Amino acid sequence: MSVRVLELRNVHKSIKGKKIIKGIDLELFSGEVLGFLGPNGSGKTTTLRMIVGLIRLTEGEILIGGHSIGKEFVKAMENVGCIIENPEMYDYLSGWENLKLLASMEKGITKERMKEVVSLVGMVKRIDDKVYTYSLGMKQRLGIAQAIMRRPKLLILDEPANGLDPAGISEFRKLIRKLAHQESMAVLVSSHILAEIEMMCDRVAIIKQGEVVRVTTVENIVKDQGILWKVRDIQLGKKILEEEFQAAVTIKEDQTLLAFIGEEQVPGINKRFMEADVGLIYASRNQKSLEDLFLALTEGDEIV
Amino acid sequence: MYNLVGNEVYKIIMKKRLWVIVGILLILIGLFAYGEHYTRERTQNQIAERIGIDDVEDWREITNQQLMDLERRLDNPFIPEEGRAGIRVRAEQLRYYLAEDINPTTFSAAQFISNFMEQSIFLFLPLLIILLASDIVSKEATTGTIKLLMTRPVPRWKILMSKLLALTILEMIVILLMATIALGISYITFGIGGFREPVITGFRVVEGELDVSNIQTVSRGTYILMTYSLGYVVAFSIGKMALMVSVLVKSTAASIGIMMSSLIGGTFLTFFISDWEITRYLFNVNLRLTDFISGDLQPVEGLSLGFSITILLLWALASTVAAFGVFSYKDILD
Ligand SMILES: Nc1ncnc2c1ncn2[C@@H]1O[C@H](COP(=O)(O)OP(=O)(O)OP(=O)(O)O)[C@@H](O)[C@H]1O
Ligand SMILES: [Mg+2]
Asked: pTM (2 decimals)?
C-alpha cells in the first residue's frame, strides 16, 4: 500500500518582493517517481529548496511524512535525502571521509550501509581519493550516495543526471527505479532531459512561471501520444485521416502527419493509404510525446 | 553535539589553515626573537660605552644611567605633558627596581614569551584569529557545502553552535601554539629560562601620576600565565566577531577584509578622537589588556582591566546573538 510521503499545500514564495512560486499543490506517494519539469527559471529549484527547508515558505505548508518542514524540521528531515543543484562536497576530504562526516551527524547509518551505497553508485575504486580529484560525474555519484545513505522515504534530486555519462545515466535510472519500486522510496526528480524523465518517472508535474500547470502519469502521455505518418501527398493523407477515420490531424514541422488514434486502427489506415496512392514512406509511434506536451504547455514562455 | 563539534574541528584541521598559522608564527617569532636579541645587545653596549665601563653585566650601573637619561628628558621643556607622564612612569619603575634590587636588564626566554604576547595582543593575535575564523561559515556558503549541513536532520542552531565551540577550542590551540613556539625559539636564542624571576605588576596611572598602591610581585611564570589568559580573552571575542561576519557575508575574502579593516581602522580612530567618550566602547581600544598588568600607558584614559574585559565580552555576546539570529532564519538561495 502506498502512503503519502510528501504534500505541498498552497505553497508560495516571494524573494525580494518578487513572486516566484505562486501557489503549488502537489502530492507524492511512496514507491513512485515524480518528474518535475519546467523551463529555466520556472521555480523548480526554489520549490525543491523549500521542501528540504533551505528556504522558508512565504505562505502555505509542506508536510513530509506528516511532519511540517517549518515546525518540525528535524522529524521531517529524517525522512529526506537530497541533492540540490550541484553535488557539492568537501573537496579537501576524500569521498569516504565526506560520507563518514555526514553519517556521524545522525543516528543509525552503519559502516556496512556506507559501503553498500558506495558500491551501489559504482565508486568503490575512487572513494578514498580526495574529492577535488573527482570529475563532475563522480561528484554526482557521491552526491547520490550521501542522499540515499539514510534510506530516506523521500528522495529529492535536482537535475541529478547532469554530468553523468550514458552508462552512468542508464545505471542511475535503474537505481532510481529500483529504490522506488523495491524499497518503496518516493522520488522527486527535476530534469531538463525529457526522454530521461519519460523513461524514469511514473508521473510528471509540469511547472510554468511558479505554477504547476499539469500533473499527469507518464502512461497517459504515452497512451495518447499519437501516430506519425510520413507520406508523399500530405494533403491527401490528411484528408483521408480526417474524413474516413475521424482523427484530429496536425501537420508537424518536419512534414509528417500526427494523428491521435488507437493503435488498432493503424493497419487499416495504412491499407487505405496504399490504395489511395498517398505514397506511404513509413508509419511510427510519436517518440517525442512528452516534448510535444511540454512545449505545448510552456509555449511562448519568456524567461522572467 | 559531541560528534558535530568533532566534525568541525576536523574540517578546520583538514583545511590546513592551522598549518598556515603555525608557519606564520614560526617566521614571525623567529624574526621577533632575532630583533629583540639584537637591540638588547646594542643598547647595553651603547650605554656601557657612554658611561665608560667594560662590564655590561653590571645592571645597577646601566639602570642608573637609563634613569638619569630619563630625568634629563623630563627637564627638557619641549616634551609635551602627555609624553612626560610616560617618562615619569618609566623612571618610577626603574627607581623601584633599583630599590628592590631587581635586575630589569636581563633577558630570559620567559621574558621573551610574555613580551611576545604583550606585543601581539592588539594586532597580530587578532589577525591570526581572523584568519582562522573568517571562513568558518562563509567558505561553506561559497562552496555550497552549507546545503549538505543544513539538510541533515539537525536543527540549524546546533550546526552553528558546533562551529562556535570548535572555534573556541581552536582559539585555545592558537594561544597554546603561540606559547610553545615562542618557548622553543626563545630557548634557542636566549638560553636562560627565567621562569622564577620576579615581575612587578600592578602599576597604574591616575591623572598622569604613577599609582604604586596596587603593586604586586609575581613570578615570571605566573605573569606569562596571566598574559596568555588575557590573550585568550582577546582571541575569544575577536573569534566570535569574525564568526558573525562570516555568517553575514557570503565571501571569505570580504569577511576577512571587513574584520581586518575594522580592527585596523578602529585603532586609527583611537589616535584621532581619543578624548571622544564613545571610543572607549569600541572593541579595538580595549584589546591591549596586557598593558594593564605590565604598567604601560593606555591610549584612552580611564580604562581598567575589568572594564576592557567586560567590553570585549559584550562584543562577543552581541556578535554571537546576531550570528545565531541570522543563521537560523536566513534563506540559502545559492
Ligand atoms: N537569489 C535570488 N534572488 C532573486 N530571485 C531569484 C533568486 N534565485 C532565484 N530567483 C528567481 O527565481 C525564479 C526561479 O528560479 P529557480 O532557480 O527555482 O528556477 P529553476 O526552475 O530551477 O530553473 P533552471 O531550470 O534554470 O534550474 C527565477 O525567476 C529566478 O530569477
Ligand atoms: Mg534549477
From this structure: 0.83
